[in-house]
Amino acid sequence: MSKTVLFVFFLTGAATAAEVYRCTQPDGGVSFQQQACSHEGRRIETGQAQSAWAPLRSAEKALYQRYRKRDRERLQRKRKLRRQTAGQSTVDERRCLLKRQQLESVSAELRRGYKAGRGEKLRRRRDNYEEYLRRFCP
Questions:
Q1: What does the alpha-carbon distance between residue 100 and residue 90 come to, in Å, rounded to a whole number?
Q2: pLDDT at position 46, please?
């Protein structure tokens, strides 16, 4: 079983064409090498190797700028939404805290004891606070 070997050439200095041969092994495997094949194979034209960075073409640059603009707009929308909901969430958190405190107060009064006529009212208030917390508070 033959492994495919791929040589990557990093050229420094002047750009030159690299000679690469694609060789088919007797067992059907394919390998890439710098020397000519001893049996079946052919030379691959690689063209000119570039050692320097190439700037973006105008169409690529326009696409890149469109993507960046879209990403900036998404980020701004997220920030705006976060600012809008930040005030609401603190109000909701305060309300939940208040309901928890009220529930604790009612529960403490139920544990301490109460007059016979007050028990039903306390249990209803406790049930209402628990229901509110189940529905609206995490």
A1: 15
A2: 66
Secondary structure class of 136 (helix, strand, coil): helix
What is the DSSP secondary-structure string of 115-130? -TTTHHHHHHHHHHHH
The residues spanned by each domain of the chain are 1-54, 58-136
Q: What is the DSSP string of 60-96?
A: HHHHHHHHHHHHHHHHHHHHHHHHHHHHHHHHHHHHH
In whole angstroms, what is the distance from residue 64 CA to residue 72 CA? 12
pLDDT band at residue 8 using 50, 70 and 90 as cut-offs: very low
Check if the beta carbon of residue 87 is closer than 8 Å to that of residue 95: no
SS3 107: helix
* CA gap 119, 114 in Å, rounded: 6
- pTM listed for this prediction: 0.37
By DSSP bridging, strand 41-48 and strand 30-33 are unpaired
pLDDT of residue 81: 84
Q: CA-CA distance, 133 to 35, in Å (whole number)?
A: 77
pLDDT at 4 over 50: no
